[in-house]
Amino acid sequence: MSHATSRRGLLFGGAAVGATALLAACTSNEPAEAKEEKTDAAPAAEESGKHVTIGFAGPQADHGWLNAINVQADERAKKYSDITFEKTEGSNDTATQIGQIDTLINKKVDVLVILPADGKALTQAGLKAMRAGIPVVNLDRIFDTPQAYRCWVGGDNYGMGLNAGHWIGEQLKDKKNAKVIELAGTDSLELTRQRTKGFDDALKNYPNIRKVARQAAEFTVESGQAKMAQLLQAQKSFDACWNHDDDQGVGALQAIEQAGRDGFILVGGAGARSAMDHIKADDGVLKATVLYPPTMAASAIDLARALGQGKGISGLSETEIPTQLSLYSAVVDKDNIDQYLSSGFK
Q1: pTM
Q2: Measuring CA to CA, which residue among 179, 182, 177, 176 is closest to residue 197?
Q3: pLDDT digits over 115-145, tens only?
Q4: What residue stretches are annotated with the Periplasmic binding protein domain (predicted)?
């Protein structure tokens, strides 16, 4: 896919806080001044408007981040009295998810929010909904064509790799012949390739650093442990490792402990609470994680509601919602951990 640049077109700093707070204004009937004084990102029930039925085809909750996506969508929908939330069981199987989307289309929901198991494979499902007159909010894993969605909202995978690379680069900029390794995600997914590209591009700014090894895992604890063990066996010494995913990072930390290795920096990805607890305690090699905020799912519900009610976003896009919203991937380390600790997902 070649959507990485456009996906980075609109960034919200400070992880997802800026995005969700701003999107809250899109469906409010209050003046902007009053909205700014609220601490809750979503409007209260009394601010209800036109009733909207939102269909949600999300992932199977077999991973910490994916479970957090479902929780965020559920909790945001419950905050609105004018939403009927039609949620599928959730699946990482393409054929099953296509069937679930067909069911939601046949129910004639007003808006569809879809986090596809595979963006490319689910593109036709998005196109089918759009052609049926049901606007689609494409969440995270992007479809192959903008014709398959009205709005895309998600994380910045290229930026995630870029920020991880720059953070590691700054830690090692004064070390001669520094070596780094990479524990990537699933290579069949475009998001993994974008994270690697961003990481590699960042390292180009540090001529003293060389990436000496890379292994692709599968976003699971088991795969993280197995692939990290292979990296540790092959690389007798290195200075830093970037791990794309904090769930597989749990396994990676187990492999590191079993091998009795230290003397390097580990940087995680996504922002799991377990990773943040290690960073806060400063009790091992894990020194930072790059956020990929699951609160994007709450933003997707806000956007879907705005679409159904024919509203825009106050102060940003007054009459229509944007076509692209990309959340910033902040690096969380010991210096700013207290700011982000509460956002860590289980």
Answers
A1: 0.82
A2: 182
A3: 999 999 999 999 999 999 999 999 999 999 9
A4: 54-311
